[in-house]
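queue> holo job accepted (adenosine-5'-diphosphate)
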Amino acid sequence: MQNKMKQQAKSQQNQGKKKNGNKLFKPRKKKSVEEDAAIQYLQAQYEKIVPDEIKTFKDFPLSQKTLKGLMENNYVTPTEIQREAIGYALQGKDILGAAKTGSGKTLAFLIPILEKLFCKKWTRMDGVGALVISPTRELAYQIYETLRKVGHLHDFSAGLIIGGQNLKFERKRMDQVNILICTPGRLLQHMDENPLFNCDNLQILVLDEADRCLDMGFETTMNAIIENLPPERQTLLFSATQTKSVKDLARLSLSFPTYVAPHEQADTVTPESLQQSYIVCEIDEKIGILWSFIKNHLKQKVIVFMATCKQVKYTYDLFCKLRPGVSLLALYGSLHQEKREKIYNEFCRKSNVVLFATDLASRGLDFPRVNWVIQMDCPEDVDTYIHRAGRTARGIFGKGEGLLMLLPHEEKFVEDLTQRKIPINKIAVDPSKVVAPQRKIEALLSDNTDLKQTAQRAFVNYVKSVFLMKNKEIFNIQLLDTDAYARSLGLIVPPRIKFMHNHQKQNVTKKQEDATANNVNVIEKLKAKVDEDEGSDQSAAEEDESPTKTKKIERKPEKKLKNKKEIPKIDFHYEEDSDEDDFLKVKKANVEVELTPIDEEQNIMSKKKAKPLTKAAVAKKILKKKIKVNTTVKFTDEGEAIDDEKRDVKSELAKQFINENVGGIDIEKAKEVLKEEDKYDKQRFREKVKAKHKEQKRKLKNKKKEEEGEKDDFGSQSESDGPDLSWLPDPDKIYGEKDGSNSDDNSQEDNRLMTADQSSIGEESEIEEKYHRPSKRKLVESRGIPQESVKPRKVKKIEDISSSLSVHEAEALAMQLLQAKR
Ligand code: ADP
Ligand code: MG
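queue> job finished
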């Protein structure tokens, strides 16, 4: 009964579940139908969009989720680029969007992304539907944050894929991501390595800061990425300095994109609310001017752009030590990702702060409320100027000021700016207001070697950057007062710039080669070749302290780089602390020239990697060539070198091993030899112990004899047991030879035995007894050393007899002896 009831209950439950399931499904279906209808309605409106009639976002045919997301973030009125681009994007057109910095380009592509995926009823299971590529991690992060704010009501998932993050973590979640925001390098890494990455369904591709993404710094990476993307997709390109290069567009298969440039007819290419000025100053005045500027703008938010990472690092380190009275931050590529994020967020949050940055921060970053942008070094080109300056005066109400520092010979750059419709005024700095902390800087550097090294690196990297600039009319290394620049950084001795030295050499070599071509002077040509080789050898290390070389560079007449061959092959990529800086990436402009040898080198390296090179293999190679690398010299305890190593080894195996000269390479054989030798060692040890025991027995015997009252003055104690008497003068010299048997030869023999074989200690003690003891004893007595330590000798008895006779008796005895001899 109970079982039946249970079954009934179960079936009822199941039925209920089914019913419930149906109930749940029904509204979903209903919802889906509603959604379909809404989508159809919205899509039908796309063709009717007239940008000029759009007053608010509500005038766009957008989904409720998107509209709500926009309103929540106070985005009510679309900006010009949004008004013009969103309509075309919704219609599915490829877009080439160009609009001033801070004009709202981000939303101009994020809104179409959300709407496109919404209309396609995209779910998590559909994979990557949209891809946004940004040239920097910070910008990618910023886009991702905006997407999260505006699109959070949608059901799509978004992913941020940037370098410096946990690759494994990213990998696992890759298959669930619908909108991917990424940097080119990391995206390609996932494409190459992650089996879960799939973008076959990609609907829309966006390149923010498109001209930067497509420039030479990212060329190979972007080409590889594009190859992996499905061709039937919508593509949107946005930038303040948009590319119109047909080549670039062809790379993206954009044959007829819609060009959207609302500010094309505007009077200026920079925001109207951006007030721009420049000053002309000497290179050694820059630091003082910057310092004074910061001291005078303590309540402002300032970004200072510099040419290289090393300059940023140095200025930041230095100014932190000088304590200007305002928060200082530094942002550059070679910083650790976590630090980069922290600095980025800190600068966004703070209001009175100075950020020293490289061009890493020049593109796209929307730092709120920046008052000033200082460009301490002349930017590479007008585009870079526009992007740097565009970090201020952003958004609808944003205001800001820009200051550009130019060296006298760089003033020509202003012409380029004005030609590109950039309004900029020359201003002068009141010298009385400039306080250069020169002495403090020098004092700090003399105290701090780390800071000094950072200064040296800043110096070299700046000079290097100027040297690599394409626009030689503005960036003229010969007109750069490098000594003055070094001094301004606090370096009394300017670091030597080796790459310049090499460049100089190469030029000289080239000239020499040209001459020889005309003159057919073989000797000259050979000389030139040698010079060239020397130059290339030095190119790896680039800085040390030799002022003379720097001066040489300055005096050298200008030589324009006419063709690629003349560009020096400087390998930044292998520099120990090479910059990950975007700035230097752009310098890959000389890609063909510089990368070829590196690639070759990498190929060689990878070939070598295939067959691991062990130490043993190297050693064997050397042995084969019969090169004597190291020789082992063994010493005796007395410090004498043992010439014949074999004399120290006993076993046949060891002798053979030494003869073969295999050293420690054949470990197994070496082990065997050691085992064999160990047997002999043990034997030697046993003998030693025996000898010692013998010695002790003898001692005991002597002691007994003494106790028995026997008058015995001489001992047989070995030197090793008794006090060291070697310091004593030769007793024979003092007392004369007693028995003529204590010759030098004997003592030499004694020494030889000691060094030749330690096992002969027992014999040695016997020899000692025979020749040395009598004379030593007298000295021992005279110095008060106890007599017990000295053993008796037979000679003593003869001595005693002669001394006891009277003169007459002695004479008679002598006569008898003489007669007997005859
Ligand atoms: P761009 O990419 O053109 O340099 P961003 O997209 O970074 O500009 O936008 C610049 C600033 O303008 C951001 O702070 C953004 O929040 C703001 N912004 C964008 N669109 C609007 C809008 N429609 N209304 C108000 N503020 C906007
Ligand atoms: Mg932008």
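queue> The chain has four domains: 33-260, 274-488, 498-538+566-572+595-629, 765-822.
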